[in-house]
Amino acid sequence: MGASSPAQRAVLERAHHGGGWLLSGIICINILILGCALVSGSAFNSVAITAVHRQIFLIVLLVLTMLWMLFYTAVTSRMDQAIVFKDSHAGPVWLRGGFLVFGLLSLLMDIFKIATYAGYLHCDSAVKVAFPVVQAVFLIVQTFFLWTHAKDCVQLHTNFTRCGLTLTLSTNLVVWMAAVTEESLHQTEIPDLYVNVSHKMYRANYGDKCKCSHSACDTFKEAFYYLYPFNIEYSLFASALAYVMWKNVGRLVEDHSHPHVKFRPKEVCFGPLTGILLVVAGLATFIMYEVDILTEDEEKRNLALLIHFVMNIVIVSLMSLATVIGCIVYRLDHREHVSEKNPTRSLDVGLLVGSSIGQFIISYFSIVALLATGARGYLNALNLSWALLTVLQLGLQNYFIIEGLNREPFHVMQEAALHTNAHAYTEMSTVIESNRSTYQLTSTKNKLNWKRRILKEVSAFLLLANIILWIMPAFGARPQFDHPTEIKFYKFTMWAAIVNIGLPFGIFYRMHSVASLFEVYLFS
Amino acid sequence: MGASSPAQRAVLERAHHGGGWLLSGIICINILILGCALVSGSAFNSVAITAVHRQIFLIVLLVLTMLWMLFYTAVTSRMDQAIVFKDSHAGPVWLRGGFLVFGLLSLLMDIFKIATYAGYLHCDSAVKVAFPVVQAVFLIVQTFFLWTHAKDCVQLHTNFTRCGLTLTLSTNLVVWMAAVTEESLHQTEIPDLYVNVSHKMYRANYGDKCKCSHSACDTFKEAFYYLYPFNIEYSLFASALAYVMWKNVGRLVEDHSHPHVKFRPKEVCFGPLTGILLVVAGLATFIMYEVDILTEDEEKRNLALLIHFVMNIVIVSLMSLATVIGCIVYRLDHREHVSEKNPTRSLDVGLLVGSSIGQFIISYFSIVALLATGARGYLNALNLSWALLTVLQLGLQNYFIIEGLNREPFHVMQEAALHTNAHAYTEMSTVIESNRSTYQLTSTKNKLNWKRRILKEVSAFLLLANIILWIMPAFGARPQFDHPTEIKFYKFTMWAAIVNIGLPFGIFYRMHSVASLFEVYLFS
Fold first, then answer.
1. Mutant choice from A27, A252, A338, A339 vs B, greatest count of B C-beta within 10 A
2. pLDDT per residue over B97-113, tens digit each?
3. pTM of the prediction?
């Protein structure tokens, strides 16, 4: 395999590209759009299509997916020659780790759901209990399946496996759509901005027809709505993993393992130090915010919002500043771009840009609403600055990360300098580059080049800042709903839809950025 | 250039891949999301953001895009070495032809708009006249620009050109969003299902504050709303052309012109004949439908709907049947898949699948609504069958077209048989293939192979059937609004949004299919 030319390999790969990928794509589109129609139908017309219809559809999808997964684990993956190659880039540890954590929290959600709806069994549909039971089993099967097989490049049963993987992908996306819609509807039931009231309202609505048979019902119901965002994240992660596996079906990769790069945290200090300070300060204000925002005292709530906005503005400004410095260093530094094609890298970049759109949408909708209403009052002015700075920060950070990932790692350059430089296409550049590489080779033994040092400091700082920006929304900060301007401007339903679709992507974006920045740190 | 290896070329292309594409992507996302927020803001909150704000934003975008286009035409494209290569696959004649026709109709729309709003100048904002004026100029500049430069692979000013092209892309998409929203809102003003009433309503609404100063106002206003769908199509076409140009910036292609394939219509007869019959029958029922649907007599309208549904079911069933036959022939026929990478081909396939999603969405939403309400009455039953068969037909047709485009054309195989077969990777397959090719070489001189014959008949039939399925919605058939089930189920606003977003994509899909089927016909 090692000696085959790229052209020959392309032909071989093409030969594996039968009708399977086409058929699997068609299946995926059909399930997705049918799911979309069903979910919207049950949201907009609760008379003809109820939650029960939607849940029956989901149960069918979940069972089918599980059957395929069991078949794959028991038959396909056990066959000889089925999995000769593994894609070392696929399913990195952070993704699978996050996947496991969110899976556990989703399992908890399902247990709470089962406990809640079991109390209504005497007067409500049994499907409402059956669905979380099936979903809990599915969570266990899927987490095990993707944990063990995420890196597989399957060579046998390719067409069937492709269809199975798009079934997994579309099932997870339909579950995601259903969860987002349910969450939005649940929030829309809130008559004003107090969460406490909503809970009482909800209980009252439900209670007049059908009473829960055990006393813990309310606690469970309150608890499982807090766990919804984790289930939403879990579905997104599972979709990403299934998509990578789908891309890897029939792929022939050479088994070059990840170049081992030593992580030496002592190399840098200023970036991590500022970053840790920022995380601690962010955590402190976040806890204050979470406590104060639930009080009935309007002044206290406004103060909490003020502190939250100021803290976020400080974080985002510092991040933008750091990223600008990093981008300038890239301009000065003339490392070669990686020319090798790498599907996982392309997917990484695609996911990064795609998930950043969620945060972009929320920020731009805020900007338009605030500008149109004149941004009167200090809270509106702060909110506007936050949104503007976030847009700037997202653009800069995307640029920084993608540039960083696309450059030849320094350690690879060092190795290349020892061999003849095969890639350089003019003599001139070869000479320049090998000179530079040799220089780095000698210098890095003792101390880092100042450019590398700055890049490492910047990535470490951005990494920590992204962690705090991840923690705040992931653990419940929703200034978008605590501050009334956008709600009044767009009406509650629309604003809830925008935030509930955009924010999970935003959270995913921050986690993904942390992982990518870690890679940029290692490669610099 | 001819002698350079693929690897070397990849490096060269990479070298051109500076920060430009990243920056241009970030610009594109920002304009699009800001545009989306503005358009939704003006649709959902007409107090703070009016149509005037949106139009000012659009004028700024249009002027900036025009300035860049003029700069490109006057400076960049005139420079030495700027356009050494042309992509012969980009901007095919059907796309540029449709683009020109839709451009002319959009120009007409703008002229009507100017005439209408000029009559309100004494009491309404001057921006409402300024916007169509600017848009008319923009239409001329852009149509000229894309007509002459669609095939360019620019080698100079690459970063600036990339940003200019994404600016063009996002401007067109924002214009598209604005047009779709305006069209939806206009239709939502209709209090019941009669178009005539809406017009009177609209006039009444506007008339009480501000009267038109000339008498032709109403005629013009009625006329320009009929031309909206063409403007929507025009924006989609322009976006597709700009995207291909953006992909081609800095690309080094060998200037192999399209292999000349002779179009001999006498080769086939059954397919085209049935197709033409279908087109004629479809046109006849379409005209009847358009006349009868506007009458006040409910029975006559139901009859018109009945005939329209039956005709569509017949067309779609015959198409599905023909496609199944075609797919079976593909199974029997073992032509090699094309292994060469071709960005325009990938884009073609992407556009085909992407635009089919529009029709998929409408059909699935219909299916869910009809099934949930029980599909009572013959009209509902027919509508349901139509939707189900459309889903089937779309899936099959996508499969047929993509398979057809991905196979090595027969004439190329004949040439290859004369040389040594460089691509075959085992001796076995070389022998088989050259045998087969030689056989075809001798046989095709006189008569077509039966497999080729069937494929040609099927593609010709599908081509003509797609034409009639294009004509009907493009020239105003909207059974989705003439039949009340879905409107009642999803509420009018939501259903109007689904149809107005989905249908333009559906129309684009039919046109695109016609072009792709023509290619499949030639390659078979």
1. A339
2. 888 988 999 999 999 99
3. 0.77
